[in-house]
Amino acid sequence: MARALYIHWPFCLAKCPYCDFNSHVRETIVQSQWEEALLADLRHEAQAAGGEQLESIFFGGGTPSLMPPVLVARLLDEAERLWGFAPGIEITLEANPSSVEAANFAALAGAGVNRVSLGVQSFEDEALRFLGRLHGAVEAVAAIEVAQRHFARVSFDLIYARPGQDEAAWRDELARGLAFGTGHLSLYQLTIEAATRFATDVRRGVFTPLDDERAADLFALTREMTAAAGLPAYEISNHARPGEESRHNLAYWRYRDYAGIGPGAHGRRGGMATMRHRKPENYLAAIELSGHGLVEERALTRAGQATEALLMGLRLREGVDCADLTSRFGFARDELIDGSKLALHRDLGLVATAGTRIVVTDAGMPLLDALLGDLVAGELVAA
């Protein structure tokens, strides 16, 4: 069953204007109440998805670096008791670069966290203010340096293709990021998500997003610079030295089972899709009533699973192996992939094939969403 565990901490000090994740601002958080709730949810999920040792755990949010380190330690101890840990387990925690949170890094490392993912987003103060971040550039640099002292593996995020950003500015900022020598970077183009403050700002004309052509140029520059630095892209937005890829995220993209607990957490286990209550108060009420935070537990059809596996796997540099998907879900290649569209996009250089494997090329990655819509066989989606 599940070899990966996701734990969602839903609280932030402020809501970023670009963020559509399940995050909430609360004046008061009763830590003892949350410890009891998360432990109960963890035990329920272990009963349903236990049986194999965990290979990765990921604390996401929200801002899980705001969690008391003693709570992180308690959850890790219980997860190890329930599942057992595989040798060399990867335990990641997302963190913001504020000085308050950075001060917790030693204690978090002591609790068992061995990989941190920092939400740096930019090394420019003006950009950080635009993005609604509570830290400044100096704090971002300091947090990376503190993290490198305490954690075996460090990753950080940057957001590019911001309004008005040109190649020279992004080249300089990315070079600063690469100079830290971390083994992993997550580099995201700014996307205007529905139901965010940025979506409202764009509608009101407060700012205009960068146009697609200039964003594509920055994407190509990103690929060029990270490859030259020894951190090639292994997923559309994620770059790593070989061997330092996020094992937890690879479990998602390779469509392996994972357990998810905490408000709004999703999971996949044994052909079932699970989802927890999103609102923290509703989640706590569900735990009190039922001993778990589930709001939905739904059986997925074979076609649904195969479609999800294709949509996730084609994000990866390694692509998908149709023979593996046939073995897992029972569909022939022509039932998985639209052969005529595959041939068309291969001729255009947007996808490539090698035996039973299909990959999206560097030229195709900026067009990934459109390609996915074309490549996945219509009969499979409709099934």
Description of the molecule:
Helix 1 links the parallel strand 1 (4-9) and strand 2. With 383 residues, the chain is an alpha/beta fold. The chain has 17 helices and 15 strands. It has helices at residues 31-49, 69-83, 99-102, 105-111, 125-130, 137-150, 167-178, 197-203, 212-228, 247-253, 280-290, 302-313, 322-329, 333-336, 339-347, 368-375, 378-382; strands spanning 4-9, 54-61, 85-95, 115-121, 153-160, 184-189, 233-235, 238-240, 259-261, 266-269, 272-276, 294-299, 320-321, 351-354, 357-360. Helix content is 43%, strand content 21%. The protein folds into two domains: 4-253, Aldolase class I (TIM Barrel), CATH 3.20.20.70; 314-382, Arc Repressor Mutant, subunit A. Helix 7 (167-178) runs parallel beside helix 9 (212-228). The strands form three sheets. It has a nine-stranded mixed beta sheet, sandwiched between helices. Strands 10-11-12 form a three-stranded antiparallel beta sheet.
